[in-house]
Each structure stands twice: as C-alpha cells, then as structure tokens.
Specification:
22% helix, Aminopeptidase, 172 residues
C-alpha cells in the first residue's frame, strides 16, 4: 500500500485528533495539535495518507531561543508526531519527518529542535542539542533526548541558548 504525504487540510482535523488519541496513552498530544493550530502556530503540518485514511501526522511549530547574550532568535520544533499503531515500524514516521524537514527547508527555516528518542532522530540529521550549546527550557534533564537539525550550512555557527517551545506545550 502506498503512503502519500501531503499538507494537512481543514477536513483532516477530526482524523488527526483521533490518530493522536490512538497513538498515545491519552489525548494530550491530540489536544496539543488543536491548541497549536488554533493559536496559528502550525508552521508545517503534514499527514500521511493511505487509501484515503490518515495514518500519520507531524506538526512543526515556532520555538524561541534565548541566547546567552540576551538576544533571541526563532527556530522550529518538531512535535507532536503520531503514526497509527497498526502502521508503526513501516516507514510512515520516517517519511513524515523527511517530508517535514524538506518543507521547513523550503520555507527557509534553518533550525529544527525535537525532544525525542535518541535512537530515532539522528538518522534524519538531528544531533544532540547540548553538544551545540542548547538546552530545553525547564532544565538539562532532557539533554540525551533533545536534538537539533541544521537545515542550512552554517546554521548552528555562533548560536546557542535555551529553547522555549510554544506555550501550548505547558498544558501537556
């Protein structure tokens, strides 16, 4: 069965909510997607579709990076991402991440952060964020699972700081 990756449409909203609710132990991520979308913070939102059914979703939203010198700069955060439990480990998530990063690059974004599984995200060009001087707002406890991907050459040069995800993440 072929998977098609495409931008989210308004008609996908209920299917995306149901997908996230199935893929996680609670509907917190589903509510987060709605909150980010409602706040106008969905910069890139893609679905994986199989036989006219949404089987995967990824969303990229703005993050604010507070640099040590007091300056701030913008980047994106990858989260949340969900794949239908029946389609996990079949390449759907990887296809979503690759397509999402390509869309971010096409929109001229240069850095993407993710808090995720250390064995998964490096295959897409993500590197440990702490090694580049970044930490996650709320402490360094997440450093082993906190990653950054540079979408343009030199994007990490001279940059460091504390990454603040959208306020909607605080409700998780």
């Amino acid at each position: 069965m072929a998977i098609a990756i495409r931008p989210e449409r308004a008609s996908d909203r209920d299917a995306i909510f149901a997908l996230h609710a199935r893929a996680f132990p609670s509907d917190a991520e589903a509510r987060l997607v709605d909150a980010l979308r409602d706040a106008g913070a969905a910069r890139v939102s893609l679905v994986a579709e199989e036989e006219a059914r949404v089987v995967g979703h990824v969303l990229f939203s703005p993050v604010r990076v507070a640099a040590p010198n007091g300056a701030e700069f913008a980047a994106l955060g990858l989260a949340p991402m969900a794949v239908d439990p029946a389609r996990q480990r079949a390449g759907v998530g990887g296809a979503l991440v690759r397509a999402g990063l390509a869309a971010c690059r096409a929109d001229r974004h240069v850095l993407v952060f993710v808090l995720g599984h250390p064995a998964y995200y490096p295959r897409f060009g993500f590197e440990p964020a702490a090694a580049h001087g970044f930490s996650y707002a709320g402490g360094r406890a997440y450093d082993a699972a906190f990653f950054v991907a540079a979408l343009a050459p030199g994007a990490l040069a001279g940059r460091a700081g504390v990454v603040h995800f959208h306020a909607a993440f605080a409700a998780l």
